[in-house]
Design a protein that fits this description.
Layout lengths: L7 H19 L1 E2 L18 E6 L5 H16 L3 E6 L4 H13 L4 E5 L7 H9 L4 E4 L10 E5 L1 H19 L4 E7 L5 H20 L2 E8 L5 H15 L5 E4 L2 H13 L7 E2 L6 H9 L5 E3 L2 H16 L4 E2 L2 E4 L4 E7 L2 E3 L5 H5 L6 H6 L3
Parallel strand pairs: 2-3, 2-4, 4-5, 5-6, 6-14, 7-8, 7-9, 9-10
Antiparallel strand pairs: 1-12, 11-15, 13-14
The structure holds beta-D-galactopyranose.
Length: 361
């Protein structure tokens, strides 16, 4: 079809608008207008996928890696994995290594959602599409973001606590809040979900936050320090710890054990780590959030391979990362207590029953 009445610039603009409309209407990610690199031809017959992870120190990220690599390999791709050991400079260098290796797509679970914007820029320069995995990368031209419903995680954690605190009996309740790592956009979203539930109760005075802090690098030992600081401040005069994941819950529970308070104070979590599930059986942790990692990792592998082959993928929404509306895919989450461990974590094959029930602490 020829568009003579249009000077070249106007023709290009019309094409850009048209493909925008198309991608919005269909939710397709075909590589955004002006992104010559994303629409460039795929490099290899067997797609090569670069996977850059923040850390492999936590159980959950080892699972993400294993599920992702298995699925991508099943789809005929090769995967090159880099572990940044929670070091921003190293993670940027990891992405540079993947670019130099000539991968067709890069999947990044960032340690720091701001620091990795530079790495996304480098990949785009090299014509390589970038998928942010679980954690958002801010202020850059990201192709795709795949994660869980992180706001819902926070809502479920706080709602569990509000309901359980009400069962303790009447009167004001005192809680500590352990947020995640400030470098991780998810930590902010978890907190926002918690705030939505807690705010009215804090404003009414029904709940008092007696101590709160952000846990550097999500490290259990840092969480223990914060819980100890809270115990030094208020003694045993509190009812619960709203911890944002199982690792930090485990650190805080260590502090409670030393005070003889374990099992007497409500503690939340997230990730359904095996140790956390055992603590829930044993009564020292009250709940966790089960995130079907296999589902997210396999979907991300499937979409990464498609991006590598410059094939369209379906996004179910978008997320403003401060620079662009990033096409986004979100997977739902489930609150888990000792009452539904079997129907969720065990039934899904996330942990075998005998491992969960063997040694409650
Ligand atoms: C978050 C992630 C959580 C948690 C945490 C620590 O970004 O969504 O599942 O494990 O990192 O790694």
């Amino acid at each position: 079809m020829h568009f003579p009445q249009f000077p070249r610039m106007k023709l290009r603009l019309a094409l850009v608008v048209l493909s925008c409309l198309l991608s919005i209407v269909t939710g397709l990610v075909l590589g955004r207008p002006g992104h010559t690199s994303a629409t460039a031809t795929a490099g290899h017959i067997r797609p090569v996928v670069g996977l850059s992870l923040d850390t492999l120190k936590e159980e959950r990220w080892q699972r993400d890696r294993d599920n992702f690599v298995r699925k991508a390999t099943d789809l005929g791709a090769d995967v090159k994995v880099q572990d940044a050991n929670s070091d921003d400079v190293r993670q940027v260098a990891d992405v540079q290594t993947l670019i130099t290796l000539g991968v067709d797509v890069i999947v990044i679970a960032p340690h720091n959602g701001d620091a990795m914007a530079k790495a996304v820029g480098m990949a785009r320069e090299a014509g390589i599409p970038v998928l942010a995995y679980d954690r958002l990368i801010r202020n850059c031209d990201l192709d795709l973001y795949m994660t869980f419903d992180n706001f819902r995680v926070g809502e479920l954690q706080a709602q569990y606590l509000v309901d359980a605190l009400a069962k303790i009996g009447p009167g004001k309740k005192r809680i500590m809040r352990l947020y995640g790592a400030k470098t991780d956009n998810n930590a902010t979203v978890f907190k926002a979900g918690q705030d939505k539930v807690l705010r009215p109760l804090i404003d009414s005075g029904a709940i008092e936050v007696v101590h709160e802090d952000w846990v550097d690098d999500w490290k259990p030992e840092n969480a223990k320090k914060i819980a100890n600081a809270g115990l030094n401040k208020v003694g045993h005069n509190f009812d619960a710890i709203l911890a944002s994941n199982d690792g930090t819950a485990g650190g805080a529970i260590q502090a409670l054990i030393e005070e003889g308070l374990a099992g007497k104070v409500l503690v939340t979590g997230q990730d359904a780590d095996l140790a956390a599930c055992q603590r829930i059986v044993g009564g020292t942790q009250s709940m966790t959030i089960y995130k079907p990692l296999k589902k997210l990792a396999e979907k991300a592998a499937e979409y990464a391979v498609k991006l590598a082959q410059r094939r369209p993928v379906i996004a179910t929404g978008s997320y403003d990362n401060g620079q662009v509306q990033v096409p986004t895919v979100q997977v739902d989450v489930v609150a888990v207590t000792k009452d539904n461990l079997k129907e969720t974590v065990v039934a899904d094959g996330f942990h075998p029953a005998q491992a969960v029930y063997q040694t409650g602490q």
